[in-house]
Amino acid sequence: MSSSTTSLFALSLGVALALGAPTGAVAQSAPLTAQESDPNVMGWMQGFPPPPDKLITQPDSNYFSFPKLRWSVCHLREFLPTEEISRGLDAPVPLDYLPPADFADMRQQIDAVTFTPQNSDDTMTWEESLYANYTDGMLILHRGEVVYERYFGCLDEAGKHAIMSMTKSFTGLLAEIMVVEGALDDTALVRDIIPEIGDSAFASATVRQVMDMTTGVQYSEDYSDPNADIWLYSAAASPLPKPADYVGPDGYWEYLQQVQPEGNHGDEFHYKTINSDMLGWIISRVSGKSVTELASERLWRRMGVEQDAYQTVDGKGVPFAGGGITAGLRDLGRLGQLMLNGGELNGARLFPAEVVERISAGGDRAKFGSGFPTVGAGSYTSQWWVFHNEHGAYAARGVHGQTIYVDPTAEMVLVRLASYPRAQNGFIDPTSLPAYQAVAEFLLSKRP
Fold it and tell me: Where are the beta strands (DSSP E) in 280-340?
């Protein structure tokens, strides 16, 4: 590689990590416990100025490597340009909480809940699982009432946290709202909505195939291969100036125009982030609004949220529809409650109940395959993960442990924000998913 290409590769690595992509280096490096790697213990960015060895800066390409990751997830806006998802000017609608004494008692009870992780004979408590999974924030609502709330590491109740690929579920939800309301035809071909897509493999896919990630498109996320598609995509998406000798696509949408085919549309589910950005382009073209504007108009301004959210953008100002949102823990809980309530929140209907009915019903399980063994016989639809378990649970999920987990049977919404060292949820699910089920069953047992 030329020196400028090598620099671009390093920068792309940093950008890819910031947006939630795993790397071999991150996957192999977890020497510190959650307590040891706490940003406050590590001393990152403390002091005026911080000592040189405690700085975390851009354009250094390691700001999302562990343990710096544990500070950076709460400070993404300091590394990359963003657009606001405005909450508007209305006062927030407060969440309902258990009375203080009951809330404290419930925390003790939930912390003591035990479960057995997948492929293990040893039990674990709920509280132990929080540290095992490098939790930064945990919120649980039961029957619309907050029964558990804790903060760790870089996050507090006034802070915001990168939600990584949970962003996809925002994009998918907006698309499903448009489909149900008749504004978007999910049987239409991409090329009929976005003529500029040209001869890209996306051209002949339907909107629904993009929504459910059953497109036949070439996109490799082999992070050990410097020529893998992920690096080309990251280089295109970088909002920072390109090297003088850079000749690749510029921005998310320009990259999508040159995607090649691989397999047949509709055959199988393949988790590929480029589908989310293709979907973001589609709903922006149809609505005439960016995904940040849509999220503000249809969700954030109407949910009574406490804080604005924000979303990273490429060098042309296109929001990253596949992984760029940062938001507050409680506001993500409000979104989960909106889903649990079938599109209603604070006495107002935000979108038709059919939207949630379609998402929670899941996609074609025969197309899900065996690539996600910790999830089991699940499915994926409208950019949401559906578990098809006995409680009918479904979730928005993001790398490093981000989750909005909705359990309709237990009337429970759980939000976890985390900074797990390894950028693959397959390392976290064996502990997390049984823990969620155990807390759901505990809450069910508390019903009068």
Answer: 309-312, 325-327
